[in-house]
């Protein structure tokens, strides 16, 4: 597979914020390998043209490099790292934010023979595969439209559908197909994920969240673990600790106040879990982060793209 034109297009159009003139299309250029950093995955297709990345989700680790793509069908708390990047050979990536409405439209237009059966259980929220040449070709044609402003409005939606179709019918299609089915197991869990993320400071009973999601408690536990690689309580803890770390950068002296604001009743429990997650007590980690922020460094890029 020749990735030369893909690399050239990404390198030419990459901007610090990764956005492009085409809605939902992202490109990134990262010139330095990075330390593992917490982030939210977003719901995205990420294709690597050059370099390599490592993503940790719960107890699962995903690695993908040039010519491979990762699909994230749920917005999940992850730890991401660029492991192969330098000024002479930067990491180059393409991203497409997944639009459930477009996926649903494609599934409605397809015949049963066109699309493999989705299955009843929820798939993992992430999956990695080698990119077929048809998918890479469609991505290249999408990025060519960045140089063709007259054609973008008419052609970009068509190429987006082609990219999604290649993924829907490909090796990891089950991950994406369930995103377009309103009553799929994946979407039941996605609703629970959104609720926990929006109410992360609140204690909750798993039975109540399962009821809100519209599935039985036993199916909820099983599918939540399959999608997120975590239990609901572990998921909430990840969100709390990530939010606390963001707050500590601007309020490093308020460890106790931040621990309460993110939902911890016990500052000592917060400090133990924070150190276990990030390797340092909250106050020391905050000082390190503030020092790094004062040093010249490349702008951070999202973990997947």
Give a verbal description of the structure.
With 305 residues, the chain is an alpha+beta fold. It has three domains: 4-180, Jelly Rolls (Sandwich); 185-233, Orthogonal Bundle (Arc Repressor Mutant, subunit A), CATH 1.10.10.60; 237-294, Arc Repressor Mutant, subunit A. It contains twelve helices and nine strands. A hairpin with a 2-residue loop joins β4 (52-57) and β5. The relative contact order is 0.15.
Can I get a quick summary?
This protein is α+β, with helices and mostly antiparallel strands. It has 12 helices and 9 strands. It has 3 domains: 4-180, Jelly Rolls; 185-233, Orthogonal Bundle (Arc Repressor Mutant, subunit A), CATH 1.10.10; 237-294, Arc Repressor Mutant, subunit A (Orthogonal Bundle).
Which properties best describe this structure?
Arc Repressor Mutant, subunit A; 3 domains; 305 residues; Jelly Rolls; alpha+beta; five-stranded antiparallel sheet; 9 strands; four-stranded antiparallel sheet
The portion of residues forming beta strands comes to 15-25%
Annotated CATH topology of the largest domain: Jelly Rolls
DSSP strand count? 9
Task: Give the overall pLDDT as a whole number.
Answer: 90
Which structural category do the helix and sheet elements fall into?
alpha+beta
Pfam families: AraC_N, HTH_18
Keywords: DNA-binding, Transcription, Transcription regulation
InterPro entries: Homeodomain-like_sf, HTH_AraC, HTH_AraC-typ_CS, Tscrpt_reg_HTH_AraC_N
Domain HTH araC/xylS-type: 190-288
